[in-house]
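Exercise 7. Given the encoded structure of a 268-residue chain, write a plausible sequence.
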C-alpha cells in the first residue's frame, strides 16, 4: 500500500496527471522577474523589453506572474512590449508594509521608480489584497500623475478550496468521472470585484474582472480540455499555462485598447 501511494494505481492516468499538476512557473521568469523577496531584491535586465511599444508593464504578486505565459504568447501575435515586476505575496501598493512580506514595501518603492523611469504605456496591476486598497489607490494616483500610462486593474482569480487539482481528485473519487468543465463546487465566493472596482476606478484605473471571464452561471472553468495540461489552475489561485493563455486571450483587446494591431512580423 505504501509503495503504491495508497490508491494512486487505481486511478486512471489522466486523473492522476490532473491531480498531480504542478505550478508551471518556467515562463514566470522566477528569480529574474518574479522575485522571492526573502532572498532577492533586483530585477534582471530581461524584465523590460527595450524599444518595443506600446509597453505593457505587469506589477503584482505571484498570481500576476502566472499571467506571463498568456502575455508572452499574446505578444507573439500582437507585437507589444512587456515589462514584468512581480514578487511573491507582494501586493502592488505604496507606503504600507504587507503582512508576512517584510521587503514588499521597499520592493514596491523600487518598482515605482522603474515605472517612472521607463514610462510604460499601460500598467497592469494584479494580486490586490482588499485590505490594502487605500494604498493601491495611492499607487494609481501616483502613476496617473507622473506618467501618461493607462492603469488597468485585473480582479482576483476564482479561489479553489484545497486547490483545483485536489478538486479533480475529490470529484473522481465521489463520481468516478472527470470533473465537469465548469463547477461551483469548492469555489470560495469571496472575490471582491465590486469592492475593488468601487475603490480604484474613481482614482483613474480601468477594471477588468477575471472572474467574469473564468466563471459564468454554470460555474468556474476547471479545464480547457481533457488533458492534464488543460486544468486551469495548479493550486488554489495560480493559473496554469493553459489557464493563463485562455484568460489573456479573452482580455488582451481590452488591455491594449487599440494601441497595437496584429502583425505577422510581431515575433521578429
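Solution.
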Amino acid at each position: 500500500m505504501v509503495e503504491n501511494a495508497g490508491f494512486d494505481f487505481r486511478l486512471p492516468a489522466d486523473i492522476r496527471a490532473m491531480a498531480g499538476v504542478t505550478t508551471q512557473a518556467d515562463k514566470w521568469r522566477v528569480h529574474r522577474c518574479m522575485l522571492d523577496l526573502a532572498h532577492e531584491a533586483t530585477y534582471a535586465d530581461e524584465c523590460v523589453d527595450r524599444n518595443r511599444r506600446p509597453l505593457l508593464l505587469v506589477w503584482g504578486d505571484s498570481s500576476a506572474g502566472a499571467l506571463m505565459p498568456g502575455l508572452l504568447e499574446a505578444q507573439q501575435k500582437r507585437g507589444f512590449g512587456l515589462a514584468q515586476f512581480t514578487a511573491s505575496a507582494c501586493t502592488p501598493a505604496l507606503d504600507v508594509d504587507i503582512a508576512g512580506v517584510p521587503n514588499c514595501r521597499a520592493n514596491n518603492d523600487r518598482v515605482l521608480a522603474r515605472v517612472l523611469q521607463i514610462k510604460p504605456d499601460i500598467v497592469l496591476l494584479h494580486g490586490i489584497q482588499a485590505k490594502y486598497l487605500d494604498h493601491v489607490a495611492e499607487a494609481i494616483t501616483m502613476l496617473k500623475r507622473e506618467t501618461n500610462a493607462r492603469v488597468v486593474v485585473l480582479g482576483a482569480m476564482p479561489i479553489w478550496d484545497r486547490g483545483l487539482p485536489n478538486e479533480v481528485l475529490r470529484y473522481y473519487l465521489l463520481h468516478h468521472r472527470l470533473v465537469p468543465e465548469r463547477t461551483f463546487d469548492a469555489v470560495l465566493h469571496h472575490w471582491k470585484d465590486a469592492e475593488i472596482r468601487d475603490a480604484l476606478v474613481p482614482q483613474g484605473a480601468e477594471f477588468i474582472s477575471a472572474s467574469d471571464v473564468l466563471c459564468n452561471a454554470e460555474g468556474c472553468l476547471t479545464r480547457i480540455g481533457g488533458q492534464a495540461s488543460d486544468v486551469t489552475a495548479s493550486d488554489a489561485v495560480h493559473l496554469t499555462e493553459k489557464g493563463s493563455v485562455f484568460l489573456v486571450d479573452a482580455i488582451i483587446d481590452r488591455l491594449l485598447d487599440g494601441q497595437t494591431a496584429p502583425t505577422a512580423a510581431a515575433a521578429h
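Remark. The chain has nine helices and eleven strands. Students should compare their own answers with the one above.
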